[in-house]
Amino acid sequence: MNVAVIGSGTMGNGIAHVFAQHGFSVALIDISQPALDRALGTITKNLDRQVAKAALTEEDKAATLGRLRTFTSLEAGVAGVGLVVEAATENVDLKLQIFRDLDQYAPADAILASNTSSISITKIAAVTKRPQQVIGMHFMNPVPVMKLVEVIRGYATSDAVTEQVMDLSRQLGKTPTEVNDYPGFVANRILMPMINEAIITLFEGVAGVEEIDTVMKLGMAHPMGPLQLADFIGLDVCLAILRVLHEGLGNPKYAPCPLLVNMVMAGRLGAKSGEGFYQYTAGSKELVVAERFRR
């Protein structure tokens, strides 16, 4: 099966990497050729890391890169594919437009999947004439490492499409988990309130950044504290998901902490902006609490 991946950012290049590594021909699509070039560079570095760990051979790396093609045209990129995985920015209007275009250009029998972490698959499917073929494939970051794929059934998603996507996920060496289409699905419905509560705990002065993360790492065996994880995900993404939960479920417990809202408005988005709850310096792996939150 030929696969198209839309969006060459962190998630898109990771999804393309994994499909290509497991023998699929992959069309990686983005509106920007420089972004596509950066994505290929990232994939190459990640493959080199796998080679260094003896997880892949140089021949495997070359074969993987040989299965990747890049496109700036959606119409050209999706021609002849059996599966499209959309991994564009988590913006509902953008995703709906992409799926309208996919419905027009992708082969009639192609499965249209979204890597959305919170937006309704039913809503996305409703803008197409093939809602039974629209499904969620929520990969975790970093895609080449993380084993889970949340497979989200929209209201009209067929049994056959669901089973095919579950099987494709297994072919990638992943563990697919089928969930139904409600705000936040499972992963973010549980994770984001935890992150939000950690931010509220900081906001209310219960403890500092490092102390909150230490409690969760050492007390709950989490590999990364919730504030560091929020920085890694992107505070803007966390805020967007919390707003989806708050609006979709109508429960005030999902209301985002005012500190999170202010940090996003101020451009303190976490690792990608250089500062969130921690500050990030290129080339350094040292975890340093942002100056604003130092005691």
UniProtKB/TrEMBL annotation:
The EC number(s) this enzyme carries: 1.1.1.157
Gene3D superfamilies: N-(1-d-carboxylethyl)-l-norvaline Dehydrogenase, domain 2, NAD(P)-binding Rossmann-like Domain
Annotated 3-hydroxyacyl-CoA dehydrogenase NAD binding domain residues: 2-181
Stored Pfam families: 3HCDH, 3HCDH_N
Single annotated GO MF: 3-hydroxybutyryl-CoA dehydrogenase activity
Keywords, in A-Z order: Oxidoreductase
Residues in 3-hydroxyacyl-CoA dehydrogenase C-terminal domain copies: 184-280
InterPro entries: 3-OHacyl-CoA_DH (IPR022694), 3-OHacyl-CoA_DH_CS (IPR006180), 3-OHacyl-CoA_DH_NAD-bd (IPR006176), 3HC_DH_C (IPR006108), 6-PGluconate_DH-like_C_sf (IPR008927), 6PGD_dom2 (IPR013328), NAD(P)-bd_dom_sf (IPR036291)
Family statement: Belongs to the 3-hydroxyacyl-CoA dehydrogenase family.
The protein's name in its UniProt record: 3-hydroxybutyryl-CoA dehydrogenase
Organism: Hymenobacter humi
